[in-house]
Specification:
two-stranded antiparallel sheet, Lysozyme-like_dom_sf, Lysozyme, MltB-like, Helicase, Ruva Protein, domain 3, signal, about 55% helix, globular, Murein transglycosylase, peptidoglycan lytic transglycosylase activity, mainly alpha, about 270 residues
Length: about 270
C-alpha cells in the first residue's frame, strides 16, 4: 500500500477546484475516537450539501462507518522505516521484476501506446502496479468512503483528508466510484492505488470505453499512473534513476525514499536497463 503522502501537494489545487477552503476543512469538529463520528457526519453533510454535493454521494456519506482498522493502519506505517534491502525483500522486489517482465510482453501494445502518449516506459509503471496491489491481486478491504471519512474526522490530518473526502464524494456523485467501493486503508483506489484527489486530477480513460475505472480496467489504472508521472515532471527519454531527470516524478508518487528507490530499481530491471 502506498503512503498517504502521495498526492499531498495536490490538495490545495483540488480544494480550489471543488470550491473548498481551508476554513471549511475545519468547520466540522474533529475527534480521536468513534464517539463523535456520527455527529461530525451530520455537520459535514450540511457543509457538503452547501457546496453542491448531493444524492448518492450524501447517501454514501450517511452510510459511512467509523473505520477503526483504518486508524490502526494509519498509526502503524512501519515498512517505510526499513532499509532499502529490507523493504525490497518485504515487498518481493525480485518477484515483481520477474512477473513484470512477463506482463510487459503480454501487454506490449498497451505499454507502447501509453509510452507514446505520456512518455513513460513500462518498467516504472509495472513496478508501481506490482508493489501497490500485486498487479491487481489485492486492492484493499476497506470501504473507501468510510476510510476517507474517518481520516477526515480524525484530528491528525483533518485538512488533508477533508480535501480527499470532498474528492471522494465528487467521484461518487459523477459515477466514477461506487458508494460501496472497497479499497485500501487510507482510501486509495484501484490497481495502482490512487488517492481520490489524484483520480480527479489525473484519472484518464485508458481503454477508450468512455469512462474511468481504476478498479477493473488495468488500461485506465496504468494510463492514469503515467499521466500522474507526466504531471509531476516526467519527460520522454529521460532516465529515472536517482539523480536523473525523471526521478523527481517518481518522488511525487510516494514520499518514502525506500519506495522511490524500489520503483527505480524494479523498473530498470523490467526495462532491461
Amino acid at each position: 500500500m502506498a503512503s498517504f503522502a502521495k498526492g499531498t501537494i495536490l490538495a490545495a489545487a483540488v480544494c480550489a477546484m471543488l470550491g473548498v477552503g481551508a476554513g471549511a476543512a475545519q468547520a466540522a469538529r474533529c475527534g480521536n475516537n468513534a464517539a463523535g463520528f456520527e455527529n461530525w457526519k451530520q455537520e459535514f453533510k450540511q457543509e457538503a450539501a452547501a457546496r453542491g454535493i448531493g444524492g448518492r454521494a450524501l447517501g454514501a456519506l450517511d452510510n459511512a462507518k467509523y473505520a477503526s482498522k483504518t486508524i490502526h493502519a494509519d498509526r502503524n506505517q512501519k515498512s517505510f522505516k526499513l532499509s532499502l534491502g529490507q523493504f525490497m525483500a518485504k515487498r518481493g522486489g525480485k518477484q515483481i521484476a520477474s512477473k513484470g517482465k512477463s506482463l510487459k510482453k503480454q501487454n506490449a501494445a498497451l505499454f507502447a501506446s501509453i509510452e507514446q502518449r505520456y512518455g513513460v516506459p513500462a518498467g516504472p509503471l509495472l513496478a508501481i502496479w506490482g508493489m501497490e496491489t500485486g498487479f491487481g491481486g489485492f486492492l484493499g478491504n476497506q470501504n473507501t468512503v468510510s476510510a476517507v471519512a474517518t481520516l477526515a474526522y480524525d484530528c491528525r490530518r483533518t485538512e488533508f483528508f477533508t480535501n480527499q473526502l470532498y474528492a471522494t464524494l465528487q467521484l461518487v456523485q459523477n459515477g466514477t466510484l461506487s458508494p460501496s467501493a472497497i479499497g485500501a486503508a487510507h482510501g486509495e483506489i484501484g490497481q495502482t492505488q490512487f488517492l481520490p484527489v489524484n483520480v480527479l486530477k489525473y484519472g484518464v480513460d485508458g481503454d477508450g470505453n468512455g469512462r474511468i475505472d481504476m478498479v477493473k480496467s488495468k488500461a485506465d489504472a496504468l494510463a492514469s499512473t503515467a499521466n500522474f508521472l507526466r504531471g509531476h515532471g516526467w519527460r520522454a527519454g529521460g532516465g529515472y534513476q536517482p539523480g536523473q531527470a525523471n526521478f523527481g516524478a517518481i518522488q511525487g508518487w510516494n514520499s518514502a525514499s525506500v519506495y522511490q528507490q524500489a520503483i527505480a530499481i524494479i523498473g530498470a530491471e523490467i526495462d532491461g536497463q
